[in-house]
Structure formats: structure tokens, C-alpha cells
Amino acid sequence: MHSASQINILILDDDPFILKMLTKMLANQGYTSVRTCDNGRDALAVIDNADTRPDLILLDLNMPDMDGIEFVRYLVEHSYPGDLVLVSGEDERILKTAEKLVHAHQIPMLGYLHKPVTPDKLAGILSAWKPHATDDQTPISHRLYSAEELRAAIANRELVNYYQPKVSVRTGDVIGVETLVRWHHATDGLIFPDRFIRIAEENHLINELTTLVLTNALNQAKIWHQSGLMLRVAINVSMDNLASLDFQDLVVNLVTQAGLSPQTIVLEVTESQVMGADARVPLEILSRLRLKRFHLSIDDFGTGHSSMAQLRDIPFDELKIDQGFVHRAWTDVTLRAIYDASLSMAKQLDMETVAEGVEDLHDWELLRQTGCDLAQGNFVSKPLLAAEFSNWAATWKQRVRTESLLQPEK
Ligand code: C2E
Ligand code: CA
Ligand code: CA
């Protein structure tokens, strides 16, 4: 168990008075390993340094240059492994909205503090702090990897595909899987893609990475198809993959060599990535792949800024509603509005809908009530190794019956 003095805390606030006051309050409560920054840039440098990386950040929302919301986005990009407490003088609604954003980015949040912060409120929030539990899917190390290490990992085939099922909400049938890559690191254990995809993209390794993931996924698809399991296999395609026309030839060749039909392969493209660069080349590649009957899926729908423009320009077959708008949408009117709008847009455009992040029975019931086509999430199954798949499928079939997942609600 960590004692208070072992927990590294970073306070980020542009107001020097607040920095001083919070540092003092924390010291009075035994938290002596505290650093302060008055701007986001300095704070990111503290986070990037393994020796100073905090376990917990107290983050002010209102700051002149980089505000708290923008800072949260950078936290994701910098693979920040710790927790967050939002501190703000803003009203409850703004804090709540910010909290939702943080959740959508999957950064664990302890809670929020209204200014003026009192010692009692601070103590209340910190008493909830626990060091992260580790399970078999939780990475044990947080260090940053170099391009060289990643290059070697790809060459040595240390990247392993996991497959997360997508099931029909109406029939319970398993329709397909999404391929999610992990790094089985010799000493650090299981490393999640959030910690190496960006490194691959920035160091021209993403084509090699995607080729490995795709090759393994196609081999697996072939095995499933030969055993009579006609699963649709999805892979994630990075915007950087779509920067050169070679990618299209590569995909077509690999699929042809594997003797698979393009209809059974889904390419998931994240829209915020699509927006970035010159859109013409990706657009051409995606349109051509679509002509060859590959399935195109727009990933993380609702999180970018030009979702509508992407829908207008690219002939997607499938729309994946981001997990940030799915889990708990049954009880939260804002999430529900975004979920409903995404669903209805997809239906009008004749696209298949997939809800990501279905975590419990409430989420599942919402999908059923609203007619979403496919469900993906931990309620159905966590991402699996190929070897675990058939056992899971048998259990799922049973669950659909015993838990009455297709029956009208009581
Ligand atoms: P994504 O495409 O949005 O994938 C879904 C992520 O949500 C996966 O995280 C999955 O494990 C997680 N997830 C699934 N069910 C639930 C749930 O019920 N609740 C919650 N909270 N999360 C759930 P993962 O595997 O860590 O992947 C993260 C991202 O990395 C993916 O997001 C995808 O954008 C990217 N990625 C994964 N594999 C590849 C790849 O081969 N190539 C590229 N370019 N990107 C990849
Ligand atoms: Ca995806
Ligand atoms: Ca997604």
C-alpha cells in the first residue's frame, strides 16, 4: 500500500496563490511529494519524465494558454497512466461536461473540486485514491518506448492480435470480431496499443505494424472460415496508412493471397485521423477499396469535429458509436442525445450501426430498445486471444438464453 508521502502529485493552475495554498493543504495531509506548474507545457514535460511522472494531477480547467480540456487531450497522447482531479471555479454543469470528456478519454478521474477548495473537500477526494490494481489486461509498466524497440518488436513478431466479438443485438449471433493489437513485451508484460500506435505513426512504422496485424488477422480469418465460422474480421487502419496508394495494393494483395473475399474484411478508420492531413489520397484509397467490396467503418463516431463531412465524402458501410456515448447513455440525457443522433444518422444513410463500450445489461437493453444493429464491449466479451474464442462463443450462446438477453423486458 502507498503512504501519502509516496504519492507523486502534480498541481497545474495558472494562479500562483492556488498553487501555494493547495501545496500547503496537501502537506498538512501528509502528501509531501508535490510538484506545481503554472502552464500545460511545463506540466507535460513533468509527465514525460519517468522520474517526475505524477500518480495524480490536480488540474485547473481555466488557464490562459492551454486550457484544462486541451490538456486532457494531451494527457491521452502522452499516455498518462495516473488519475485526475478537476479543480475549477466554474459552475457544476461545466465541471460535469468536463468530467464526461475525461471519461470519454478513459482517464480515471477521482472527482472534481469547486474553488475555493477546503481542506475537508480535498481530504474527501484523496481518501478515495487507491494505487491502480493490476489484472491480466492491465499493463505493469508505464515507460515510453523508442522507435527502435518497436521496430524490433514488429520484426520479432512480439505484436499479438486480440479479437473482440461484435454480436447482433437482435439475434445474439456473433457477426464478427475487431482485431486489437497488443505487445507481448518480454519484460514489461502486456502493452496496450495506446502506448505504441502513435510511436509507430510518428516513426514511419505504421505500415509495417498494420501489415503484421493484417497478415495475422487474415490467417486467423481463414482458420475460422474453414471451420465454418463465417466471421467478419475488422482491423484498425491509421490515417498514416492511407497516405500512400501502396497501402491499397498491399491490402488487396494480402486478402487475395489468403483466398478471402473482401466482403468479409472490415477496415475501421478513426474519423479524427481522417480529418487531419490532405484528405484526397485517403479518400481515393477508401473509395477504391469500397469499390472492391471491402467494408468500411467509421470508428469513434462523435468524437471528431467533422463527422458529417466524413460521412458525406466517404462511402462507409458501418458506423461505430464511440464508447463515450454508449456506456451510461440509458441514464444520462446528454449522452443519450448524442447516441440517438448518431444512430438515426446512420440509419438514414443506410449504414450498419455498432455500439462500442457496452459494459452492462443497462447498456445492452438500450441498444435493444433503440434498434442498434451490433454490440461490442466488455458486457459481451473483453478482447480475446484466438485460442479463447470458441470457449467464449459457447458460453455466450448459453448466456443469451439463461440471462434472457433477447426476451422482451420485464
Ligand atoms: P478502438 O478502435 O476504439 O478500440 C476499442 C477499444 O475499447 C479497445 O481498446 C478495447 O479493448 C476497448 N474496449 C472494448 N470494450 C470496452 C468496454 O466495454 N469498455 C471500455 N471502457 N473499453 C472497451 P484497446 O485495445 O486498448 O485499443 C485502443 C485503440 O488502439 C483502439 O481503439 C484503436 O484505435 C487502436 N488500435 C488497436 N489496434 C490497432 C491496430 O492494429 N492498428 C491501429 N492503427 N490502431 C489500433
Ligand atoms: Ca476500432
Ligand atoms: Ca472506437
Lateral arrangement of strands in the main beta sheet: 6-7-9-10-11-12-13-14
Mean of residue pLDDT values: 89
Q: Mind telling me the CATH superfamily name of the largest domain?
A: EAL domain
Q: What string, H for helix and E for strand, traces the elements in order? A: EHEHEHEHEHHEEEHHEHEHHEHEHEHEH
Under the CATH scheme, which architecture of the largest domain would be assigned? Alpha-Beta Barrel
Rg over alpha carbons: 23 Å
Q: How far is the N terminus from the C terminus?
A: 44 Å
SS-based structural class?
A: alpha/beta
CATH names the topology of the largest domain as TIM Barrel
Question: In one word, what is the shape?
Answer: globular
Poorly predicted segments: 133-140
How large is the share of residues in beta strands? 15-25%
Taking the sheet with the most strands, its summary is: 8 strands, mixed, barrel
Number of domains: 2
Number of helical stretches of at least 4 residues:
15
Number of strands: 14
CATH class of the largest domain: Alpha Beta
